Amino acid sequence: MPAQRASSYSNIRTAFERALEDDRQTLAEEQKACRARARKFSQETNRRRRAQEERRREEDVRELKMREDILQQRKHKVQEATERFQRAHLPPSQRKRHGGTNAS
After folding, report:
1. Rounded to whole angstroms, how far apart are CA atoms 53 and 49?
2. Which of 19, 20, 27, 94 would give a disulfide with 90, using CB separation of 3.0 to 4.6 Å?
3. Residue 1 above 60 pLDDT?
4. Cα→Cα distances 26→13, 29, 32, 83, 94, Å
5. Considering the chain, what is the average pLDDT of its residues?
6. 51 vs 10, 55, 61, 93, CA distance in Å?
7. CB-based contact 97:87 (threshold 8 Å)
8. In this predicted structure, what is the pLDDT of residue 94?
9. Concatenated DSSP letters of 21-62
10. Interior CA angle at 15 toward 11 and 16, to 5°?
């Protein structure tokens, strides 16, 4: 009988060892899947972040160009107003000469 007990304990132990090994393998596969999913999410997050940064850079460039255009328009308007003012306030003798050069 003691030999039979030893045999049954051995069978139980190997069954536990197999179950334990199966659990370890399942855990390892689950961890691998979780790491792969986390890597995928991280890559997607990085891709979105880079795309957002690129959109922000493009928007900054558009805004800078728009500001420069507006400043150029204002500068041009001021220059035209200054020229009109100066032409309007020329002494009569210079107005005649200026007007005479335009007619010829």
Report:
1. 6
2. 94
3. no
4. 20, 5, 10, 85, 99
5. 86
6. 61, 6, 15, 65
7. no
8. 76
9. HHHHHHHHHHHHHHHHHHHHHHHHHHHHHHHHHHHHHHHHHH
10. 120
pLDDT (0 to 100) of residue 4: 53
Alpha carbons 47 and 41: distance in angstroms, whole number: 10
Q: Which residue has the tokens 């997607």?
A: 44
67-76 contacts at long range (C-beta below 8 A, 24 or more positions apart) = none
Which residues are CB-neighbours of 26 under 8 A, at least 6 positions away? Answer: none
pLDDT in tens, 28-40: 999 999 999 999 9
In whole angstroms, how large is the CA radius of gyration of the chain? 43
* Whether 95 contacts 84, CB under 8 Å: no
CA 15, distance to chain mean position in Å, is 55
Quote the CA–CA distance of 71 and 63 in Å, as a whole number: 12
